[in-house]
Amino acid sequence: MALASTETTATTIDFGPAAALSCRECGARYELGPSFACIECFGPLEIAYDFGAVSREQISAGPTNIWRYRSLLPVPADVADKPNMAPGWTKLVRADRLARELGIRSLHVKDDSGNPTHSFKDRVVAIAVEAARNFGFHTLSCSSTGNLAGAVTAAAARAGLDACVFIPADLEQAKIVMASVYGGKLVGIEGSYDEVNRFCSELIGDPLGDRWGFVNVNLRPYYAEGSKTLAYEIAEQLGWRLPDQIVIPVASGSQLTKIDKGFGELIKLGLVEEKPYRIFGAQAAGCSPVSTAYRAGRDVIQPVKPDTIAKSLAIGNPADGPYVLDIARRTGGAVEDVTDEEIVDAIRLLARTEGIFAETAGGVTVGVLRKLVAEGRLDPDAETVVLNTGDGLKTLDAVAGHARPTAVIRPSLDAFRAAVAG
Amino acid sequence: MALASTETTATTIDFGPAAALSCRECGARYELGPSFACIECFGPLEIAYDFGAVSREQISAGPTNIWRYRSLLPVPADVADKPNMAPGWTKLVRADRLARELGIRSLHVKDDSGNPTHSFKDRVVAIAVEAARNFGFHTLSCSSTGNLAGAVTAAAARAGLDACVFIPADLEQAKIVMASVYGGKLVGIEGSYDEVNRFCSELIGDPLGDRWGFVNVNLRPYYAEGSKTLAYEIAEQLGWRLPDQIVIPVASGSQLTKIDKGFGELIKLGLVEEKPYRIFGAQAAGCSPVSTAYRAGRDVIQPVKPDTIAKSLAIGNPADGPYVLDIARRTGGAVEDVTDEEIVDAIRLLARTEGIFAETAGGVTVGVLRKLVAEGRLDPDAETVVLNTGDGLKTLDAVAGHARPTAVIRPSLDAFRAAVAG
Asked: In this protein, which residues make up the domain named Tryptophan synthase beta chain-like PALP (chains A, B) (predicted)?
């Protein structure tokens, strides 16, 4: 099978409406291939499209997963029929109780913990799997802060591909178990995420990594497009309308830039009315290179050594940081950060008001939302969306100290009266 | 608000198409109320309906959650607009790779780990919350083996109700954290689930438990109906068709009996064609009172003291056990059990073939499916569905010994070559 797909690569490649790779910096265009950097200027490559006519009706008639937007993604028209994780169409939860506590009028939580491996990463990986198939790769790989590793190994299992993924060795147990249970190879690296990432770049140039698809390296232009589906879903779930304000976590920064791209495409295609929207980036204080640059009014990101419980956002040298700064400034948003203590408080706040148990990354966005409201930097009367991109079950330790039984008792009414109801 | 709802109870009670409570044993009928046992014969009460006309089109036009079936459930017509967890419409995953390994033709996994708190319990609790609102209860409660406690405390948080839930004190950490993070009271009981359950029955008769809705005791007739939505979804997702064979976990047995009820309703309402289907119950060998009775050809369930890693199925005295025996025998199915080792093997098998990380309960159903196929007791050519009712992240310990990094290395190609790719 591997042979056949290599031989027929030229004729079977099908990226749907994707037309080319184009450099985000200099605009140079390239054929669709497993490339990620411009050979002219080393800028990052992204997908350029020739969109056909796309209607709300056509989308709404699609499956209840990201493939309803297949005509806006670099995937073949029959993608929904292939074995993949079919992520997306997660809930946009109306958060009235949280809104009331924060003192804002209209708030929704886009809750991506409902994805198959319980983080938004299933979205990006699903697109990368199609690219890997197109290019005849046999092994799916990535550098990961944890969630991505689980998403990649699960997707590879389902697609019948090999997997070999790389993580910092000191991750949460839940993420380690999840990344290895699907049967691929999981390699712990003694070092930070940024060191894992550098290692993967080396591996890609080595014969060892031949015909490997690194979802967030050589497949990155395809992979990154998966985040656009968050924008599409939010708009469709609001009744084909953009929100006024949105709070998005910033790790590499890719997700935030792609949500902005997605909103822009919806406007251009006439699927939503044009209107201004403000994009806010959220970081953990213990890994805040982008918010630090934002506050200082700088365009350049100074890499940092992460030290935060929000490990899924612990990227000290974020590739798309400068674009995040651009977008926050252009849309009238901001980039802000919160301490680990504020993250834990925000996880608990979201849980007790809305019944949503978020990962630390969700504590970061809700914490930043709360901070921005308190400081009067977010309009309390405007329609607001906050993202939860992961699941509390993966970062139990963050709240374990606060989440214990009220009491442990013998099974008797007297014991209950004495310990709990007295 | 509590006052108002008490005063207006008589006029605002709205259970949609539900007409009465009726005794499963003697058929005696009662007004809809917070009762669960027949005063004539002590049999369990269940919901009797006056269904209006229900069409496939009407259902398909509904929301992508269990409320699309609101006209088949004891809930008001506007239930989707109220703050609740909106569970359901989880994936029915086509499992070709697993089917191939098992040697069967057509297999789907109904994957309920996609629910808001990652178990099927969100379905039953969502119905119970509506009943609690109808009866003016201020506190939501339950006895639980873990998953239910999380589902109840999350749903109470979102609905703005108090929660006080009871669990055996020795549960998995993930379930304890999840059940307490939403801010309700979590009480650990020194004893088995069956002792927790007995304690709750005492509490219900005590003034301490006044105006408490115990979802699986005094709200049980409403609560249990939530499991019917699994039957509805499976049929709709198969293209409005019943499967030939289905494997369902058995704890109290309620879920299995309600799936059978749901299939029956779909036939009666003309929503699917009538056809025979076989229902198989799955238990853990360490808590197998129903499969033991099945094998022995008995009608009576002998209670056991559970000892299994499948804690969510560890009910030693299953209330609906006799009905499970009836249904398995009537439909030509069976009740079977698997050892803890077979459970772990099955979790890993499902993960590496389909990218689905199941709770131990999912290991039980997949393990029993495998055993039934191997023993020739399940038709390999018939359309088969197996349920996964919970999430692997909640029972990490079951697989932690098998799910470790392949290697931990320095970030260098030499180290990688030596440890992994050599």
From this structure: 86-390
DSSP letters for B288-310? -HHHHHHHHT-SS-------SS-
* Contact check, Cβ <8 Å, B176/A393: no
Contact A409 B348 (CB under 8 A): no
Task: Tokens 């092994």: give the residue.
Answer: A139
Give the SS3 label for residue A85. coil
Highest-confidence segment of A2-11, A149-158, A392-401: A149-158
What is the C-alpha radius of gyration for chain B, rounded to an integer number of angstroms? 21
Q: Which range among A95-104, A366-375, A380-389, A410-419 shows the weakest confidence by mean pLDDT?
A: A410-419
Tokens of A345: 């408080």
Q: Phi, psi (5° rounding) for residue A313?
A: -110, 10
Query: Is A273 in a helix, a strand, or coil?
Result: coil
Per-residue confidence band for A421, with pLDDT thresholds at 50, 70 and 90: confident
For testing contact with chain A, the best of B158, B165, B345 (most A CBs within 10 A): B158
Q: How far apart are CA A145 and CA A167, in angstroms?
A: 6
Is B186 close to A83, i.e. CB distance below 8 A? no
Nearest to A409 among B91, B187, B421 (CB): B187
C-beta atoms of A183 and B352 within 8 A = yes
What is the helix (H) or strand (E) element at residue A189, kind and residue range?
Answer: strand A185-189
Please spell the DSSP secondary structure of B299-365, one letter per residue: SS-------SS-GGG--SS-TTHHHHHHHHHHHT-EEEEE-HHHHHHHHHHHHHHHS--B-HHHHHH
Distance of alpha carbon A63 from alpha carbon A78, whole angstroms: 12
Ordered domains of chain B (ranges, CATH): 92-118+224-400 (3.40.50.1100)
Q: Please name the residues in contact with A401: beta carbons below 8 A apart, sequence gap of 6 or more.
A: none
Q: Centre a 10 Å sphere on the Cβ of residue A169 and count the other Cβ atoms it contains.
A: 16
Question: Quick one: DSSP state of residue A220?
Answer: H
Pairwise CA distance, residues A7 & A1, whole Å: 10
- Which residues lie closer than 8 Å to B308 by C-beta, 6 or more apart? B284, B285, B286, B287, B314, B340, B343, B360
Non-local CB neighbours of A379 within 8 Å, separated by 6+ positions: A244, A245
Place of tokens 């993608």: A79
Indicate the pairing of strand A106-111 with strand A334-338. Answer: unpaired
β-pair type (A45-49, A18-23): antiparallel
Select from B89, B354, B406 the Cβ nearest to the Cβ of A158: B354
Q: Contacts for A8-13 with beta carbons within 8 Å, 24 or more apart?
A: A9/A134, A9/A135, A9/A136, A12/A134, A13/A134, A13/A135
The minimum CA-CA distance between B114 and chain A, rounded to whole Å, is 6
Residue A378 and residue B190: Cα distance in Å, rounded?
48
Taking only the tens place, the pLDDT of each residue in A155-165 is 999 999 999 99
Q: Return the residue of A nearest to B197 by Cα.
A: A411
List CB contacts of A390: < 8 A, sequence separation 6 or more.
A112, A113, A118, A119, A120, A147, A312, A358, A359, A360, A361, A362
A337 - beta bridge partners? A283
Q: Give the residue on B whose Cα is nearest the Cα of A410.
A: B190
Can you list the alpha helix ranges (DSSP code H) found in A186-335? Answer: 193-204, 220-225, 228-237, 254-268, 289-296, 321-331
Three-state secondary-structure class, residue B103: coil
**Token pair in block for residue A41:** 């200027």
Nearest by CB: A180 against B206, B347, B405: B405
- Helices B340-354 and B360-374 cross at an angle (nearest 10°) of 90
A31 neighbors A135 (Cβ within 8 angstroms):
no
What pLDDT is stored for residue B422 in this prediction? 66
| Minimal C-alpha gap between B41 and chain A (Å) | 28
Query: What confidence tens digit (pLDDT) does each residue in A197-236 have?
Result: 999 999 998 999 999 999 999 999 999 999 999 999 999 9
Amino acid at site A60: S
